[in-house]
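Teaching note: in complex prediction, the entire set of molecules is handled at once rather than each chain in isolation. The prompt given to students was simply: 'Predict the structure of this complex.' The entities are:
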Amino acid sequence: MTDNPYNFAYLDEQTKRMIRRAILKAVAIPGYQVPFASREMPMPYGWGTGGVQVTAAILGPKDVLKVIDQGADDTTNAVSIRAFFAKTAGVQTTTATAEATIIQTRHRIPEAPLGEDQVLVYQVPIPEPLRFLEPRETETRTMHALSEYGLMHVKLYEDIARFGHIATSYAYPVEVAGRYVMDPSPIPKFDNPKMDDCPALQLFGAGREKRIYAIPPHTRVVSLDFDDHPFERNRFSQPCALCGAGDSYLDEVVTDDRGGRLFVCSDTDYCEGRREAGHRGHQPGGPERKEAAE
Amino acid sequence: MTPPRLEAGFADPVIEGQAAFRATMDAMARPGRIVVLPGVRTAPEGLAPAACAAILALCDFETPLWLSPAMAAHGPYLRFHTGAPLTADVAAAAFALVDAAQDGIDLARFAQGVPAYPDRSATIVAQMPSLRDGAPLVIAGPGIAATQDMRVAGLPADFARQWAANRASFPLGVDLILAAGDEALALPRSARIIEGNG
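The expected output is the structure of the full assembly:
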C-alpha cells in the first residue's frame, strides 16, 4: 500500500477498461469517433477532461508526461493537469518534448518532430467536424456512414467565394486514411501537415461530447482543399523575437498600450531549446529590455 | 465432486492490466508488429499467457465473451477473473477467444458493427501455434510506414480471402489480436494483405 489515496491515475479500473476498449476501436478505424462513457473529472468540461481521461487510461508508471496548453508548458491548464497526474499516478513529468512518452496537448502539436515511442493526446472541445453545418447527431452519423462530405466542401467553397481564399485557420478539417473527415481539434492549420505520416500515435479525447478518435502512426492525413485552391500553411512575416526561429508557430504578445507587440514561439520548449543552443531573435530579452532601453 | 482449481489472474491488476493494454494498443497501432504482453504467469494450462492477458485487461461485465469449443474449458477461469458474461451467440460477442489451430477462424460470423457505429464489432483474440514461423504475409495500411512482414502459423487456408472480405467492408469488420506464448500482434480491420496467401 502507498499513501496515495487515489487509484493509479485517478480513474477506477472499469472506467479505464471501457476507455481502453474505445481507444482500440478508434485506432482500428482511423478518424472515426467512438462514443465512450465519459466520466465527471475533478475539473470542468472544457478544461481537457477528454484528454485527461485518455491519458489516465493509457498512462503507466514508467511513462514520462508532458502537458502543453497552446504550446506552452507553463500555463494554468498545463500546470494543473501535469500536477494532477504527478499526484494521482506519481509519474515523472517533463517539459522537454523529446523526453516525453505521452504528450497531452491543448490546441498545438509540438514543433520538434515526434518519435515512434511517443503518444500525442489531444484535448478536443467539439469532435464533430460537421457540427456547425448540421446540428443533428443522427444526421452527421449518417453523413459519416455514407462518406457524404459535400457539405464540408461547400463550406470551404463559401470561404473562397466570400474572402477569395479558404479562411478557416484553425480546426481545419482533414481526411484520415482516405475515409473519415475528422476535426483535428482547434490546432492552427499551421500544424495540420504534422499529422500526416506522423511516427507517433495520435489520440483525441472529447470529454463533454463523449468521443474518442485516433490517427495511427504513418497514416495519410490530408487537409481538405480544392485543385485550384490548394491547402496552404500560414506563414509568418517575421521570425520569433526571442529565438529567431523562422519555422515555428508564433503567438502575438501585446507589450504595452501604445501598439507595441512581440511575435514569439508558441511552443515554449522549442523556443527555450533554441535559445539555450545560442539562437537569438531581434529582441532576445523580451519586452522588458526594450522598455529599459527607451 | 471437487470444484476446479482456479489459478490467479494478474498479480497486480492495475499495473499489469495497464501494461497489457498498452502493449495491445501499440500492436493495434502498428499492425503485424510483434509485442510482448506481460503475460499472466499463472494462465491456465492450454491458454497462451498473452491471450489470457489481453482478455483479462480488456473484458468485464460490459463485454459478452464468446469462447471457441477448444477454449470452453477456460470459461470458469475467465468468468471469475473478468466478470464477463459468456455468450453462446457468436454475433452478440464483443470479444471472442479462439483457438485457431483447433477451431479455425471464421471472421464473418462475428459482429461487424453497423454503418453509423462501426465500433460495435467484435475483437477476436486468437491463439496461434506461433507468430514467427508460418507462411509469409505482407501487409500495409494505417500504422505501417511501408509494408510489414508477418509469419503467423496456424491461420486458416482461406485466411487471405476472409481478410480481403473483412477489409472490403471497411469501416465495418472485425479486429484481430493474434497471440502465441507471451507475444501478440494485431490486425485491425484497416490492414490490407498485399502479398502471400495465409
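Point out the following to students. The interface with chain A takes residues 13-15, 17-19, 21-22, 24-26, 28-30, 57-63, 94, 115-119, 121, 123, 141-145, 170-171, 175, 188-190 of chain B (CB under 8 Å). Chain B has a mean pLDDT of 95.
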